[in-house]
């Protein structure tokens, strides 16, 4: 916090362009150095050691696994955005360490986002607005987010955990689809729930934290999906990577190159493992195809777009969820059994019925709540006594579930 404050002040005070660029470079390297040291050093050391062994050298690098500071990926990106915006003269450097530190360490969102820009928060730091209406709005949004996390994400996560415990070789095709759909819904409600809780706490404290989700599972393409999922991260990559590289203004080849850079970095930002790079590469291929014409077709025929996304979303999260490429291949063979050799796998034929009875209601509820229908109903009846009473009941049900041990950590704390 102190170093970024100091570097921001140096950039803001310099009029000489090259000198300002030097300080910006120092700031970016400084922030990325800590991120690389804590999050990626083991990944690079392990792969370097594997390469050295392959070429017959006995030299090995030490593999260090320091404890990951909570939220380091998020506040690193916030710091870089701040320095870049000061450099571009979009904002003035902050003169108050107290105001800068309040934004930089804001507990409501620093651990898992949304990624806030300093210019979004500074006016509120100078004059927060506190009121009973804002308090009520905050409590409502916090309760909705908490309910999505505890009552939906955690329950759906139970099905995905069961599938992992059984082993991918021993599940039927219906259960394989149920499992990956459950993970897709769990990830959404886990992160969307966290974002709503962060926004709710922000309202309570007098801050308006930016929206992070806009019902992405209703999208017609992956391009649209990533405009509506983790919107603050997508906007960060657009503003600080994609556009500075040239965006789509310099021809198709440059656009595809820039998309490759953005999506490989997006994948690697989420985790230091090969499956995240593979996941980023998959997104690059899909979004490039959509930019080159597929997206026009999907938007022209919405039914086709929804069918396309119904397959692409679970397969996209499959690569995200499973770290070992060999296990990803096995799971794909369970999803599409016609690729298997006859008799390659055996499973309990009624497994999907067994777990369907346990998790069926959660799956149905999840498929309903990924749409905007519940929010539209809530907005229509928001001011009624029944709605207020329902939220109070949901809050205490969540508290009871947490007391009983149903308090799984947020998934995005890993990233």
UniProtKB/TrEMBL annotation:
The chain crosses the membrane at residues 21-43, 63-84, 252-270, 276-294, 306-332, 352-373, 385-406. Its main location: membrane. It is a multi-pass membrane protein. It is found in: Cell membrane. Keywords: Acyltransferase, Cell membrane, Membrane, Transferase, Transmembrane, Transmembrane helix. Pfam families: MBOAT. Belongs to the membrane-bound acyltransferase family. This is MBOAT family protein. It comes from Enterocloster alcoholdehydrogenati.
